[in-house]
Design a protein that fits this description.
This protein has one domain: Nucleotidyltransferase, domain 5 (2-Layer Sandwich), CATH 3.30.420.10. It is α/β, with parallel strands linked by helices. It contains 5 helices and 5 strands, in the order βββαβαβααα. The radius of gyration is 15 Å and the shape is globular.
Length: 161
């Protein structure tokens, strides 16, 4: 049986649209906090965000789900480099907060939250269905595209691991 965690983190390291989502169950209703790479944060911003959560690791532990990613064949050189940089920053974040980290493929966490693969579905249709799930689970949050995957991975960490 896994240890109960009050802080659950989902990390989508995507290139310029990556995001870190933190679900804090120590407040009611659960507080959700985001760190969006699309807002062009500095490394210092990321370290300061991580330091906010690190004290919780000593008290009750932090569980983190990070999407297991790789460069795509038709991705450009600049976007591949940016993607790799974010991936490294996200791993650093998980280390700073001393999280119990699970690397999972998109298929794994999406299947676990109930997303069924639809043959012939476009990427936009797929992302819209993910957004609908996120909005149903967390109706109090105003979603941007980067927040959806990260929060759903945090939800997966909280409820399904």
């Amino acid at each position: 049986m896994t240890q109960s965690h009050s802080i659950n983190i989902g990390i989508d390291p995507g290139g310029s649209s990556g995001c870190i989502a933190v679900i804090n169950d120590m407040v009611t209703p659960s507080e959700c906090t985001f760190f969006e790479f699309s807002k062009k944060p500095t490394e210092r911003d990321l370290v300061l965000f991580a330091q906010t959560w690190r004290p919780y690791s000593k008290v009750m532990g932090i569980r983190c789900v990070m999407e297991k990613v790789h460069a795509m064949p038709k991705q450009g050189v600049v976007s591949s480099f940016s993607f790799g940089e974010n991936n490294g920053k996200c791993k650093m974040f998980a280390e700073i907060v001393q999280a119990e980290t699970h690397m999972v493929t998109p298929r794994t966490w999406q299947k676990a939250i109930g997303l069924v693969v639809v043959k012939g579905e476009s990427k936009v249709e797929h992302k819209n269905r993910l957004r609908q799930i996120a909005e149903r689970l967390y109706p109090h949050i105003k979603f941007t595209n980067p927040k959806v995957d990260a929060l759903l991975m945090a939800h997966y960490a909280k409820n399904l691991i």
